[in-house]
Design a protein that fits this description.
This protein has about 60 residues and is mainly β. The protein is built from no helices and 5 strands.
Length: about 60
């Protein structure tokens, strides 16, 4: 979930790879993306400002 308005940062696009397709999102405050943890993803470099996000995981085998 993005906690920063998109006007407060430059760059920082969230990229999600599904199969051979790449989807890119410029997230705004309150936007959330839910996806399987085995999907390749990244956040592009922040060019200016500050991008804050809340990240969490649900399910899967317990950590030991």
């Amino acid at each position: 979930m993005c906690l920063s308005p998109k006007e407060e940062y430059g760059g920082g696009e969230f990229e999600l790879y599904v199969g051979r397709k790449m989807f890119s999102f410029k997230m705004d405050c309150g936007d959330a993306i839910i996806f399987p943890s085995d999907c390749m993803h990244r956040v592009r470099r922040i060019n200016s400002g500050t991008r804050k996000a809340l990240v969490g995981w649900y399910g899967g085998p317990p950590f030991k």
